[in-house]
Amino acid sequence: AGPNLKEWLREQFCDHPLEHCEDTRLHDAAYVGDLQTLRSLLQEESYRSRINEKSVWCCGWLPCTPLRIAATAGHGNCVDFLIRKGAEVDLVDVKGQTALYVAVVNGHLESTEILLEAGADPNGSRHHRSTPVYHASRVGRADILKALIRYGADVDVNHHLTSDTRPPFSRRLTSLVVCPLYISAAYHNLQCFRLLLQAGANPDFNCNGPVNTQEFYRGSPGCVMDAVLRHGCEAAFVNLLVEFGANLNLVKWESLGPEARGRRKMDPEALQVFKEARSKWPELSSVLWFGIN
């Protein structure tokens, strides 16, 4: 669309024809957090009928509802007011993002809590490739993650990728990356890692979950414990997985050799904790690990 991208977006995705989208005062007020203007405008029926309208506002490109705009900017008072005036909390933008998801992405705890209290789906939308829990786990926002968990968010995996909802023709997952527990470890967010496990996250996810480990890239970790070691996570991560019942037999000793791939070198203390815990498992073979007599 070139220089006319904004006009093209309006034509393609706005809820009304282009000539009816010029008045963006409602959306502009939501963007700047002007609660007084929102109150004034929504006294008129013409604006009340547009409260869930997707439009391109003053500084935006993607057509969005006023609620989605206010949530993006973190104007909690405007988010609360718009909801009380009838804004639908789980409407998605053209990218499949809900107001809750963009509030989480932009780090707005207050808006997140207001939306959750109003009944927003803590898992976001099935039309988007990520979830609020996943993002909070990746960036280490334990406070936001706590709120999502409190309202029943799925802590194991992006909810639209689970085996009972995946369409039969979809490609099976071949990576641990979709798992919030994995991503919190990869970014060394220990508090989020602990919260996920405490909330019931499967410490062995991707070994008995909807992932085909046979098709994993060569050298990639096959389970969360494997990933924790390969990413050089501290011993506390290993201790937590052991505490929450991770199957230590899933990690193959061959994968922990010099050629193991990862962002960082293995933490010696974490590796020692793993070896000691592994040695206590009844399934341990008579051959000691790593060639040690």
Automatic annotation (TrEMBL):
Q: Does the keyword Cell inner membrane apply?
A: no
| GO biological process, any | protein ubiquitination
Q: Does the keyword Repeat apply?
A: yes
Q: Which domain of life is it from?
A: Eukaryota
Keywords, sorted A to Z: ANK repeat, Repeat, Ubl conjugation pathway
Q: Please tell me one Gene Ontology term that the record gives under cellular component.
A: ubiquitin ligase complex
ANK repeats (start-end): 65-94, 95-127, 128-160
InterPro entries from the UniProt entry: Ankyrin_rpt, Ankyrin_rpt-contain_sf
Do you know which SUPFAM superfamilies this protein is assigned to? Ankyrin repeat
Q: Which family does it belong to?
A: Belongs to the ankyrin SOCS box (ASB) family.
What name is this protein filed under?
Answer: Ankyrin repeat and SOCS box-containing 1
